[in-house]
Amino acid sequence: MTGHDGDTERTFAALPPAHGRGFAQTWWGQAWLRALEDAALDSGQVKTGRRIARAGAVGAVSVRPGRITAVVQDHDRTTHRADVLLAELSAEQWDRLLDMAVERAGHVAALLDREMPPHLVEDAASEGIELLPGLGDLEPECDCGAWDHCGHTAALCYQVARLLDQDPFVLLLMRGRSELALIEDLQDRSTAPVEEAPEPEGVDAAEAYAAGDILPPLFETAEMPEKPGSPPSLDTEAPPGPGVDPVAVRHLAARTAVEAHRLLADALRRPSERPAAVLGLTAAQDAVRLAVDAPDPALTERLANGSGRDPQSLADATRAWRLGGAEALSVLEEEWTPSGDTLARARAALDSAWDEDERPSLRAEGNRWTAVGAPAQVRLGRDGRWWPYHRERERWVLAGPAALDPATALSSAELSSAEPQR
């Protein structure tokens, strides 16, 4: 690479052939290639470009705002200048993006580590700022005369995917801001002067300490109980009132104690260790929570009927709740279709989870990937975790807790499906 970080153009030396390896290992590199592969009208030209790039026939790559350029050599040794254009962000978009980046220290740290923070990309997209290219955003120009992506512009895109893996600042330069300028802007925002607060009014600290003998002692912090408490006994000589089911009331009290114990445990954890807050449950979801450890079949039947489930689906739902709470229940009962950056990260995770010769054949449907020829499936949760499922009596059953990568989840599903069915 030549040039300085502050320059608005960087030139990367030609890369060696890419035998035996993929062109993009990172999720943002995968997203870049998907923008090419999904938009090209002629898939044959994309394959030609991949062969050219793999052979190392793409020359030095020049990157500047809005454009990448390289000289590409055909198999017959003729050369062509290939350009790919990508729209720059406006000054107003850059201001909003930088403000979002400094709000989370992890965004800046990740960029300096040459990583593209997923949350930064998602936050930017929610504000209408697309960092990664989408369908039709990579506009080709080539002196071979092609009006769509040809083998030369496709080869350039594949080569740039390798550069993006090493340094996401390449993408940011294409969007209009050099690395040095970007870092300086981030530093300026991080060290912006803070207005001095007015002098506080109140009691002088020395006077307060001098009067410390009249202050009450601090209370001792209570220890966390090992398990939820037991509700008071309802065994009395008085008969229950009309419409009151003592078994149901006793169970509601017990589940309330369990929930209070969980909330207290979460509150005492450090902020970084606290689980994501669970939003208000629907009546159908809360019925599943109450059905966990229900002591009476009649009560379970009432909860099944009240939540619109049959006994078997309620049993599957309570199993999911035990393994992962509301998130696991949502994955069990809700099918959704990932898109945009979420889909790009999911595909990147699936591509990198196995070696090339070990990758299973998976059939995708929404957020579910089913192993072809095997009773095993993985489902993607909205929090990015993967949940294992196995086939049991013509239905899919949660096989275990969530995993951070799909290979671990699928292995758990396969092991569970090999066990005797319940």
Write the layout of secondary structure elements.
Blueprint: E1 10-12, H1 27-39, H2 43-54, E2 61-64, E3 67-73, E4 79-85, H3 91-103, H4 105-112, H5 118-126, E5 139-142, H6 151-166, H7 169-174, H8 179-190, H9 205-210, H10 246-268, H11 283-291, H12 297-306, H13 311-333, H14 340-353, E6 362-365, E7 368-371, E8 376-380, E9 386-392, E10 395-398, H15 406-418
Antiparallel strand pairs: 1-2, 2-3, 3-4, 4-5, 6-7, 7-8, 8-9, 9-10
How can the largest sheet be summarized?
A: 5 strands, antiparallel
Strand arrangement within the widest β-sheet reads: 1-2-3-4-5
* Count, helices: 15
Q: Which class do the helix and strand fractions yield?
A: alpha+beta
The helicity comes to 40-55%
Q: What Rg do the Cα atoms give?
A: 29 Å
Round the mean pLDDT to the nearest integer and report it: 80
Shape descriptor reads flat
Strand content: 5-15%
Order of helices and strands: EHHEEEHHHEHHHHHHHHHEEEEEH
- Low-confidence sequence ranges: 1-6
